[in-house]
Amino acid sequence: AIADAKKILPGSQAYEEAQAKIKKWQEDWAAAEAKYNELKQALDEGRWDKVVRATVDPKFLEQRYWQDKVKQLIEEAQKQKAAADAEANKNPTAPPEAPLPPKPPSDSNSSGKLSPNSKEEIQDKPTNQ
Questions:
Q1: 84: left (phi over 0), alpha (psi -120 to 50) or beta
Q2: Nearest CA to 74 among 98, 97, 49?
Q3: What is the distance between the alpha carbons of residues 78 and 48, in angstroms, rounded to a whole number?
Q4: pLDDT at residue number 103
Q5: How many CB atoms lie within 10 A of CB 127?
Q6: Beta-bridge partner residues of 108
Q7: Average pLDDT for residues 14-25, to the nearest whole number?
Q8: Whether the Cβ atoms of residue 52 and residue 77 lie closer than 8 Å to each other
């Protein structure tokens, strides 16, 4: 379409309109290409949901070329997501280990002295006289 629009000569009544359409088409193309590149990067990074959500952007899907390109990305995203989900189901994370039993109370306090309830209380300790 752009090639045909460029054939319109500058003196023609349709020239200005043709030039405006060419500019719009080129802007739309550049925007779609940028969006595609963004989605491709998202796919490469494993952000599959972002790729799949692109199907709801009607402006992006106006151009047949980009419709086909995005369709390929979406199919690849769905495959990668399914493979990742299958792998996650194949190797589920282990359940947390049971808590360790509580430690028995210490017989000594932080100063290293024996507590009054200690079984090792000093009873008949010989004294040096």
A1: alpha
A2: 49
A3: 7
A4: 63
A5: 4
A6: 114
A7: 87
A8: yes
Contact between residue 122 and residue 108 where contact means Cβ atoms under 8 Å apart: no
What integer pLDDT is reported at residue 66 of this predicted model?
Answer: 85
Burial (CB count within 10 angstroms: exposed 0-12, middle 13-18, buried 19+), residue 80: middle
- Burial of 63 from C-beta contacts in 10 A (0-12 / 13-18 / 19+): middle
Backbone angles phi, psi at 108, to 5 degrees: -125, 150
- Which pLDDT value is given to residue 127? 53
> What proportion of the chain, given as a percentage, has pLDDT over 70?
64
Residues 12, 17, 18, 24: what is their CA dihedral angle, to the nearest 10 degrees?
160
Report residue 15 as tokens. Answer: 């020239």
In the chain, where does DSSP find H-type helix? Answer: 2-6, 15-44, 48-53, 64-90
DSSP 8-state class, residue 114: B
Residue 49's nearest CA partner among 69, 73, 30 is 73
